[in-house]
Write a structure and sequence with these properties.
Blueprint (H helix, E strand, L loop, with lengths): L4 E3 L3 E2 L5 E3 L4 E4 L4 E3 L1 E3 L4 E4 L4 E3 L2 E2 L4 E4 L4 E3 L2 E2 L4 E4 L4 E8 L3 E4 L4 E8 L2 E4 L9 E4 L4 E5 L8 E3 L5 E5 L9 E6 L3 E7 L4 E7 L8 E4 L5 E4 L15
Parallel strand pairs: 3-6, 4-7, 5-8, 6-9, 7-10, 8-11, 9-12, 10-13, 11-14, 12-14, 13-15, 14-16, 15-17, 16-18, 17-19, 18-20, 19-21, 20-24
Antiparallel strand pairs: 1-4, 2-3, 21-26, 22-23, 23-24, 25-26
Length: 237
């Protein structure tokens, strides 16, 4: 991959993939584009302002950082791998697999992602805009540290997935409600002082939503699978 700054020696495999191993750091700077990079255990990639990264695979023990002005798309984060979006950084269409994690820091921007068993945390000040975050069949956890200002759309939510609302305190007064039709609806969770209003795509039963402590003072929302189609929330006209 021409123009990349690498600390150490890398091995370029057939087909153009570049493997970054333990102790090596690949830095993408302005005007540089990386395609098909594989970050192995201990390997790191930093995408700086003006740098672009497409289709990186972050393996167990690998890590990718998108700095201010950096851009990454179609990153696949495997178990034990991580991606961090710093203030001013942008990521599009990440896939977070079981055991993998993606963190959108304050000032960072996420545009669409798929949870396939992993953890996606959007910290206070980070944003997903109005993009869609989808849950795959393996579920995963969407952690919202400022759920009260989350404007994204959530699709495919259900067991074994969970939505962790860290800013909604869990206790005896915490409530959950749902209103919707056969295609979408609004999930509302409140602790009496703070309220999260989440837009869900799909068909849900209001009574199926369950809440519990996330173990850190926040509220974890789950939704058991539909067992009886006759119990589905009827359309609202």
């Amino acid at each position: 991959m021409g123009g990349a700054i690498v600390s150490g020696t890398t091995t370029v495999a057939a087909g153009g993939s570049e493997y970054i191993g333990s102790g090596y750091i690949l830095t993408m700077t302005a005007g540089q584009t990386g395609n098909g990079i594989v970050l192995l255990s201990g390997g790191r990639e930093i995408v700086l302002s003006g740098g672009t990264d497409v289709g990186t695979v972050v393996s167990s023990g690998g890590g990718e950082v998108i700095s201010a002005g950096g851009f990454a798309s179609s990153t696949v984060i495997l178990g034990g791998g991580s991606e961090t979006v710093m203030s001013g950084g942008t990521v599009v269409g990440s896939i977070v697999s079981s055991g993998g994690s993606e963190v959108v820091s304050s000032g960072g921007t996420l545009s669409g992602a798929t949870l396939s068993g992993g953890l996606l945390e959007i910290q206070s000040g980070g944003t997903a805009g109005t993009s869609t975050i989808g849950f795959g069949t393996l579920g995963g956890t969407l952690e919202l540290d400022d759920s009260q200002h989350f404007n994204g759309v959530i699709s495919g939510f259900g067991v074994p997935g969970g939505i962790d609302l860290t800013d909604i305190s869990y206790g005896s007064g915490t409530t959950v409600g749902y209103s919707g039709d056969i295609s979408s609806g609004t999930l509302t969770v409140s602790d009496g002082l703070h309220t999260a209003t989440l837009h869900l795509l799909g068909q849900y039963i209001a009574a199926n939503f369950a809440i519990q402590s996330d173990g850190n003072g926040g509220t974890l929302v789950t939704d058991p699978p539909v067992a009886d189609q006759s119990l589905l929330t009827p359309p609202h006209h």
